[in-house]
TrEMBL record:
Annotated source species: Trichodesmium erythraeum (strain IMS101)
Stored SMART domains: PBPb, PBPe
Domain spans labelled Ionotropic glutamate receptor C-terminal: 27-356
Name of the featured protein: Extracellular solute-binding protein, family 3
Signal peptide interval: none
C-alpha cells in the first residue's frame, strides 16, 4: 500500500511540474533554398532572406537550425513530409504552391527576366539591314519614281533634244533617269538640260517633289546604312513571345520553368543558377529565365562581363517564407514582417545587398 501511495504521489508531482514549468522548446528546422543575393552559403548562411529571418527569429525568441536544401521544389516536399518547419529564400508565392503549403506575408517583389548572350558580329548581321523591309521598300519606291520621271521626260524631249535624250527607248529613258537621279541628289552635273517647255515643267515639278519627299524616301536607306556601318543590332529578345522555340535553361521547379513552358520555349532544366548560366556561356542555350535580382547580382560579380540582361519581363512575383499548412505561428511572423516593412528594416537589408557587390 505504501509503495502504491508513493507512486501516486510521484505521478501527481510530475503532472504539476509539467503544467507550471514550461517545456523546453524544440529548435525549428529551417530549410534554406535559393540563390544570391537572398541566400549565400559561405562559412555561414547570409543574404537578404537569411538576415530577414534572423530578425524575425530574434524578435520572437525562436530557436532554430538551418537545414541546407538543394532546391525549392525539394524543400517543399520535405516540409510536407514533416522534415522541415519553415523554408526561407527567394521563393515566389504562386497559386500552385499555395495548394501544398502556406506562405507568410510577402517581404520582396521581384521581376522574372531573361539573361542572354550578346551576339558577335557576323557577315550576315552586317548585311542583314539591307534586306529589311524599310530598305527594300524605300529603294523600290525610289526606283519606280525615277522610272516614271524618266519616261515622262523622255517623251517630252525625244524629238527636239535627240542628242541628250535619244529616240531609242532604253537609251533615251536611261539618260532621262540619270538626269532625274542627279537632280534628286542636287548634284546637277549640267551634262543634260531639258529644252522643251513641257520638259522644263516636268523637271520643275520633280525638283519640288523631291525637295518635299526626299527625307522620307531616303529615311529607310539611311537607317539601314547607319545600322550596318555602326554594327548596331536589334535585341533578339524584347518580348516574352520572342522565346518561342528558343533554347532556354531554367532551374527545375522554379517559376522561370513555368513561364518557359507557357511561351513554348525549348527547356533545359538545371539544379542551380550557376549550372543554367554555364549552359549559356557554352552557347548550349540562348538564355536563362530566372528572378531578375539574382541575375543582376550575378552580372555585378561576373568578371568576364560576357552576358547581358534582356528587356523581357515575364512577371512580377512576391517572395515569402514557406510554413507547413498545420502551422501555429504564421500570424506572429506576418505581424513582424509587416512591422519590419513599415519601420524600414527590410528596405535597409535589401539596400545592403542589392546596391553592393561581392564584398558583402
Amino acid at each position: 500500500m505504501l509503495n502504491k501511495l508513493n507512486l501516486f504521489t510521484f505521478i501527481a508531482i510530475s503532472c504539476v511540474i509539467n503544467i507550471f514549468l514550461p517545456a523546453q522548446a524544440e529548435k525549428l528546422r529551417v530549410g534554406v533554398a535559393g540563390a544570391a543575393p537572398f541566400v549565400i552559403k559561405d562559412n555561414v548562411f547570409k543574404g537578404i532572406s537569411v538576415e530577414i529571418w534572423k530578425e524575425l527569429a530574434l524578435s520572437e525568441g525562436l530557436e532554430y537550425e538551418f537545414v541546407p536544401q538543394n532546391s525549392v521544389a525539394n524543400s517543399i516536399d520535405s516540409i510536407n513530409k514533416g522534415e522541415l518547419d519553415i523554408i526561407i529564400g527567394p521563393i515566389s508565392i504562386t497559386s500552385e504552391r499555395l495548394e501544398k503549403v502556406a506562405f507568410t506575408q510577402p517581404y520582396f517583389y521581384a521581376k522574372i527576366g531573361l539573361l542572354a548572350s550578346p551576339e558577335s558580329p557576323t557577315v550576315w548581321s552586317i548585311i542583314r539591314p539591307f534586306f529589311g523591309l524599310a530598305f527594300i521598300s524605300s529603294v523600290c519606291l525610289l526606283t519606280v519614281l525615277l522610272f516614271i520621271m524618266g519616261n515622262l521626260l523622255w517623251l517630252a524631249e525625244r524629238r527636239r533634244n535627240k542628242e541628250q535624250f535619244p529616240p531609242n527607248y532604253f537609251h533615251g529613258v536611261g539618260n532621262a533617269m540619270w538626269f532625274a537621279l542627279v537632280t534628286l541628289t542636287t548634284v546637277g552635273y549640267g551634262d543634260m538640260t531639258p529644252v522643251t517647255k513641257s520638259g522644263r515643267i516636268i523637271t520643275g515639278v520633280w525638283m519640288v517633289l523631291t525637295t518635299v519627299t526626299i527625307s522620307s524616301l531616303t529615311a529607310g536607306i539611311a537607317t539601314a546604312l547607319t545600322v550596318s556601318l555602326t554594327n548596331q543590332r536589334v535585341t533578339e529578345f524584347s518580348y516574352p513571345q520572342d522565346i518561342k522555340d528558343a533554347r532556354v535553361s531554367v532551374i527545375k521547379g522554379s517559376t522561370g520553368e513555368k513561364w518557359a513552358k507557357q511561351y513554348e520555349a525549348r527547356i533545359n532544366q538545371t539544379e542551380t543558377l550557376v549550372d543554367a548560366i554555364n549552359l549559356l556561356k557554352l552557347n548550349e542555350v540562348d538564355g536563362v529565365i530566372f528572378d531578375v535580382p539574382a541575375l543582376q547580382y550575378y552580372l555585378r560579380n561576373d568578371r568576364e562581363q560576357r552576358l547581358k540582361l534582356s528587356p523581357v519581363n515575364f512577371a512580377d512575383e512576391p517572395y515569402g517564407f514557406i510554413v507547413s499548412l498545420d502551422n501555429s505561428f504564421i500570424k506572429n511572423l506576418d505581424i513582424k514582417l509587416l512591422e519590419m516593412r513599415e519601420n524600414g528594416k527590410i528596405r535597409e537589408i535589401e539596400s545592403k545587398w542589392l546596391s553592393s557587390s561581392k564584398d558583402n
